[in-house]
Amino acid sequence: MSRREKSPSRPVNDISRGKGMQRWVAIMLLSAMSATAVANEPLPGDIIQDLNGLQSQLASQASGSADPEVLSRIISHARSQSERLAGGNRADQWASALYHQLAASALVRQGENLAAADELASARQRPSVPDSQVRRWLRDEASLRRAAGERDEAIALFEQWLSESSGNERYAETAWLLVRMLAEEERWEAALEWLVPLLEQGDLSAEQQTLTNVVLRHTGENEQALSWLLKGLSAESEADAWRQAAGLAQQAGQLGVAAAVWEAAWQLGKLSTPDERLTLIQLHLAGGTPARAGEHLEAALETGELPSNEETLRLRATAWQQAKHIDNALGAWQALAEVTQSADDWRLLGQLAYGWGRNEQAEVALTTAANLGDTQAEEWLANFR
User: Which residues have CB under 8 Å from 191's CB, separation 6+?
Assistant: First the structure.
């Protein structure tokens, strides 16, 4: 999949944007005016005075309580000036670009992010604008289009900015933002392409770790995602991080690892409910540690955490049987058979006891099964005659 390829928009856990982003962009655009006004071509005094006057008017309009009429006058005047100067010399071109930027700042205050983005697009097309300023406006335009919901266009602009801004202090921040946007659009392969270089830098935040795991899972890199998850787990990690790691281990077919992760979380107190204990038991059974499952079952039954019903008793008997713990297995099957009074359960108890050399217990169990009408038990009893 190419980086520019479009796909249906299906946001997943989108990071906050909207008013917060609008305030940030407005401040950023406004504060840049004084720095850029003298950064390139020398401007006539009347133009500098006019730009500074408009900037002062805009600065006096507090976010959230700006006067719409004042903003409209600023936008109208800035647009008129930018159009008037667009065909002039290099200084005029530079001034035109600055008027476009000032109009964009005012439009952001009005909540018109898309119109503001269009102003910046016009500003960076002026031929006298230096490359460094073009790149700043390019990134700002991408942020505005993202805020306005033009996600595909924003992604393309962020990609362009990144391709031209290696070494920029905001490169990593922007690359992570792009990865998140691509993930929200379910463009997993494109997200992975930008993600891999970021992973080489290490020191991921919790949010970046989560995003990494999501992308790696959706690109089939389950083992790599699991490795990153396990590396980031600690006693301070939230319960969800432990659950995510265990779930990913299951998806990767590493059931033993899943059981170990859940066990560690249980011991740390991250997981503590009866349902979570039951999940732990099932993971131990699936992951090849049935004796630990049996121990958890014994503890849960003793405290009443799990009910002493047929389902739980059968699970305990199965765990000890898989662990080949003879005394515990036979005791558990005996307790289960006494509750269910099932011929099948008594017969299985007899067969296990016979196989483990507990003939006396085997004969009693098989006799009980036979009395309950089990014909197979009758055949097994022939071994004692």
Answer: 179, 182, 183, 215, 219
Q: Which tokens sit at 1?
A: 């999949």
Q: Tell me the C-alpha distance between 70 and 20, whole Å.
A: 22
What radius of gyration do the chain's Cα atoms show?
Answer: 34
Measure the CA–CA gap between 269 and 267, rounded to whole angstroms.
5
What is the percent of the chain with per-residue pLDDT over 90, rounded to a whole number?
64
Phi then psi for 191, rounded to 5 degrees? -60, -40
Instruction: Report the pLDDT averaged over residues 290-312.
Output: 96
- pTM summary value: 0.60
Q: Render pLDDT for 84-134 as a digit per residue (tens, 0 to 9).
A: 999 899 999 999 999 999 999 999 988 899 999 999 999 999 988 999 999
147 within 8 A of 157, measured Cβ to Cβ: no
pLDDT above 70 covers what percent of the chain? 89
Q: Which residues of 147-181 are buried (b: 16+ CB within 10 A; e: fewer)?
A: bbebbbbbbbbbbbbbeebeebeeeeebbbbbbbb
Q: Taking the C-alpha atoms of 280, 281, 287 and 290 in order, what is their torsion angle to the nearest 10 degrees?
A: 150
DSSP state of 253: T
